[in-house]
Amino acid sequence: MSNSDRYQHYFTVSWDRLHRDVRELCDSLLNRRFEGIVAVARGGLIPAGLIARELDIRLVDTVCVKSYDKMEQGEGIDVLKGIDHDGDGWLLVDDLVDTGKTARAVREMLPKAHFLTIYAKPEGRELVDQYHSEVAQDTWIQFPWDTGFAYVEPLADRRRRGQD
Ligand SMILES: O=P(O)(O)OC[C@H]1O[C@H](OP(=O)(O)OP(=O)(O)O)[C@H](O)[C@@H]1O
Ligand SMILES: Nc1nc2[nH]cnc2c(=O)[nH]1
Ligand SMILES: [Mg+2]
After folding, report:
1. Which residues of the sequence carry a binding annotation for xanthine (predicted)?
2. Which atom number of ligand 2 is nearest to the Cα of residue 135?
3. Domain tally for the chain?
4. Which atom of ligand 1 sits closest to the CA of residue 121?
5. Treating both helix axes as pointing N-terminal to C-terminal, what angle do 45-55 and 15-27 enclose, rounded to 10 degrees?
């Protein structure tokens, strides 16, 4: 089964929703002190920026990995940029965990980090320390940076065209 067959539904996240969810996660981290944030690029970059602002963290680093090309997951994880510490005292941020393949790879690099994703699917959720909401395994999450506003035809027009 190709990966695009795994996904039967879409969960489209607006900028507003993402921002709200990130802020709610940050609320529970307010009393913790972190050395800095490591964002898992690219998906973790925007959540990491929002979190850095909320928690007043100025030190932000990245690990850069590649796993998916559109909806298709490749065989392995390409690590384009690693990191030279074990994550002790650091917050590790990605946008989501799905199969857990990426999470497993970055966990290995930063075993001591507090690992947070905004969304988590069942196959990968055990690999992260914290997430905002769970999303079904058969659902593809559409982030606001991958989408845009578009005209939607009225239902009546669509029906009329169907009858033509
Ligand atoms: O749990 P998994 O099945 O490994 O999937 C989760 C990963 O997939 C996406 O990254 P992607 O590799 O698409 O790259 P991107 O962050 O550059 O968009 C997402 O940002 C996670 O990092
Ligand atoms: N945008 C996006 N990237 C992913 N990578 C793995 N799963 C997903 C998903 O549901 N949405
Ligand atoms: Mg990613």
Report:
1. 98, 141
2. 10
3. 1
4. 1
5. 50
